Amino acid sequence: MPATAGLATNFYPRQIVHASWAIGLKPGQRLGFHTHVLDYFWTSVTGGHGRSRFSDGRVSDTAYKPGDIKQLTFKEGESMVHDLENIGDTELLFTTVEFLDSPNAPLELRSNTRSVAEI
C-alpha cells in the first residue's frame, strides 16, 4: 500500500510557501527517495519510529514524539536526498512545509502533488 503524501491545509501565504504536505505512513510503509533543495520544516503529529536512508549511504533510525519539529536549511547548490520508512507499529503523521525564501529555486513538483499556489 503506498504512503499518503497529500497537500495539507494552506498554512502560510503562497508568496512564502512553495508547498505543504500532510504525510501519513502506516507501519511498514515507505515514502520513496525524494530531493529537498528548499529550506523547510517538519512537525511530527504522532509518535513512532522511522528509518531514513540518505544518498551518501547513511541510515538513520529516529524515535518521534508528537510535537517534534525539525527545520532544515540549504545553502545555494546544496540538497538532500532521502526516503522515510515507518519501522514502528503505529501510523506516522507529519506536516511538512517548504519555503520559497530559500537560496535555491524550487524543483518541479511531481504530477501527483499540488503546490499551495494551486489551491
Q: Concise description?
A:
The chain is mainly β.
Write up this protein.
By secondary structure, this protein is mainly beta. Helix content is 0%, strand content 47%. It contains no helices and 9 strands. The relative contact order is 0.35.
How would you characterize the largest beta sheet? 5 strands, antiparallel
Question: What's the tally of helices?
Answer: 0
Distance, first to last CA? 27 Å
Secondary-structure element order, N to C: EEEEEEEEE
Strand order of the largest sheet: 1-2-9-4-7
Percent helix: under 10%
Task: Tell me the radius of gyration.
Answer: 14 Å
Work out the strand percent.
over 45%
Rough outline: globular
Uncertain stretches of 5 or more adjacent residues: 4-10, 113-119
**Main structural class:** mainly beta
Q: How many β-strands, per DSSP?
A: 9
Mean pLDDT: 84
Oligomer: single chain
List the helices and strands and how they pair.
Blueprint: E1 4-7, E2 17-25, E3 30-36, E4 40-44, E5 48-53, E6 59-64, E7 69-72, E8 80-86, E9 92-99
Antiparallel strand pairs: 1-2, 2-9, 3-8, 4-7, 4-9, 5-6, 5-8
Supply the key terms.
mainly beta, 47% strand, 119 residues, four-stranded antiparallel β-sheet, disordered C terminus
